[in-house]
Design the sequence.
């Protein structure tokens, strides 16, 4: 089984690439953000640790984590965000390692891990290579306006909050240019697989 890490900025078209990999190459796609959300639900590994660390004030009426309340703490304080990441990231990685073993038994040919960014998370020992899904900023802006109805200001804030193109390029082994026609993107993927 081949294991790839895929990353890219908001509006780069990662979802379309992931769908293509599933349909054309029978890939199994693991989105780390989604795994993290599941592991943070009540009764799952991260829940008690997060409540113990940040207090019950981060819970909603249903006693689940209130992501907005937690976000108000961790997105204004780097130290608090690091504390949350130290709880969540090892659990997510542990889950992914077990899932890879399960999918290998099922003879899945391609396991794709998607994340906003991978550095320092220890996925270098898991992934054969990392792909950066690149799109020109003007293209990303247009996609986000059309698909999500975002304002220019919201798009600017989202893009500036993410890592720079240089960081993505330095981290990744391959760059898929998804700025133009998707047939061109498919061709690039085909050449790499």
Sequence:
């Amino acid at each position: 089984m081949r294991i790839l890490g895929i990353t890219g900025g908001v509006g780069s078209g990662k979802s379309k690439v992931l769908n293509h990999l599933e349909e054309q190459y029978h890939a199994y796609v693991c989105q780390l953000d989604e795994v993290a959300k599941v592991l943070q639900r009540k009764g799952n590994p991260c829940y008690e640790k997060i409540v113990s660390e940040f207090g019950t004030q981060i819970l909603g009426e249903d006693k689940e984590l209130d992501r907005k309340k937690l976000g108000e703490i961790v997105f204004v304080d780097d130290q608090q965000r690091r504390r949350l990441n130290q709880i969540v990231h090892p659990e997510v990685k542990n889950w992914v390692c077990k899932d890879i073993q399960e999918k290998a038994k099922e003879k899945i040919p391609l396991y794709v891990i998607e994340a906003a960014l991978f550095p320092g998370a220890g996925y270098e020992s898991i992934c054969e290579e990392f792909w950066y899904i690149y799109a020109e900023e003007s293209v990303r802006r247009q996609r986000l306006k059309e698909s999500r109805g975002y304002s220019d200001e919201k798009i600017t804030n989202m893009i500036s909050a993410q890592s720079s193109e240089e960081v993505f390029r330095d981290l990744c082994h391959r760059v898929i240019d998804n700025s133009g026609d998707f047939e061109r993107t498919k061709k690039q993927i085909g050449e790499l697989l």
